Every structure is written in C-alpha cells, then in structure tokens.
Write the structure tokens for this entry.
Amino acid sequence: MRVHICAVGRLRQGPERDLYDDYLTRFDRTGRALALGPAKLIEVEDKKGGGMTAEAALLDRAIPSGSLICVMDERGKVQSSPQFADQLAGWRDQGRQDVTFVIGGADGIDPALRDRADAAMSFGKMVWPHMLVRVMLAEQLYRAASILAGSPYHRV
C-alpha cells in the first residue's frame, strides 16, 4: 500500500526536514516487507493567498485517484501507536492501493475537504504546527511498521 503525505507548504532544510527524511527512510525500509510503502511527500503551495479553499483545491488535485483520505485534524480520532498500526494494516488488508494523509496549512483543512475524508486523525487536543505534524506523522508511520514487524522500537 503506497503512502502519500499531501501537505500545504514547503518543508525547508533544517532539523525538521532531517527528522522527517530519516523516519520516512526507516518506514520505507521496514514497511517494504509488510506491503507498506513507499511513502511519498507531495507539497502544495497557494502563492495567491486564497486561504483554506484554495489550499483544499491544490490538495485535492494532489491526492491520487481512488486513494483513501485521512486528514490530520485536531477534531480527528486520537489513537495509540498500536491502534494506528492496526489501522494501517487494516487498510492494507482491505486491499487499499493508496492511503493519503492530508496536512493543512496554518489555518487547517477546509471543511469541504475534511468532510470528504474517509478518516480523520489527531495527535491530541493540542494544535501542532503543520510542519511539525509532518515529522510526527513520519515517526508514527515508522513506529507502526515496527510494531507490525515485531521490532523492539516500540516499547509498551
């Protein structure tokens, strides 16, 4: 199952980018044997300042056709890491070819796109900077693959 991360904005060079790249590389390596991955980042940028609606249109065009859509949203479902691993495995086992995680811009995700999503996930009740959410998602993808592979990375 291919994993796509569609996000508003560009993740520039720096510590966040280094962490993001490291965790996605680990995910790709660990997930390959589990039919998870590869993971691909698709960045969109609204250079005209159209707000959430314009960002949603760009995100919508970036989402692969037929992909399961999971928005990263503060109103989404809060899961433990093992629950997230089970969710990923469940999507894969249902025969999903693609899953796309959508990360909005500073103002979040347009309600129309959010309503169209198949799932919504949250990293808790706190709001996180959208650039940091990318790193957290990449780490959780790697952790999920590690859990499914029986690796000792995740400790209970």
